Amino acid sequence: MDNIDYIEVIGLIAAFLTTAFLPQVYKTWQTKDTSSLSLPMFSMFFVGVIMWFIYGILIESLAIILANAITIISSFLLVYFKVKYSKKETTD
User: Fold this and answer.
1) What pLDDT does 91 receive?
2) What residue ranges define each of the domains in the chain, with the CATH number in brackets?
3) Low-confidence spans in the chain with pLDDT less than 70
């Protein structure tokens, strides 16, 4: 394995570790409690991740594309849950 292979392996491991958001997504879905989530922060984060995803496509980096595809889905779900469940909290 040469240096490029090691660099790609590190990138792919980092991409896999972006699944760290999934437990939060699951917990939020189960409890429907979004009171501790900041909508402005997650909205800005979501847009930033989309930009990273586009960047990964432009430079053809599989690690950046995978990491940000996973994070786009996770952060979108958290923003969606925040909007959906916050409305429910205010009407209860």
Assistant:
1) 57
2) 3-91 (1.20.1280.290)
3) 1-3, 88-92
**Residue 3 tokens, joined:** 């240096």
What residues contact 13, with CB distance under 8 A and at least 6 apart? none
pLDDT at 46: 92
Find out whether 82 and 90 touch, Cβ atoms under 8 Å.
no
- Judge contact between 73 and 21, C-beta under 8 A: no
Q: What angle do CA 62, 29, 85 make, to 5 degrees?
A: 115
Angle between helices 62-91 and 3-17 (to 10 degrees): 10
CB contact at 8 A, 39 and 86: yes
Q: How far is CA 20 from CA 15, 40, 43, 59, in A?
A: 10, 20, 18, 25
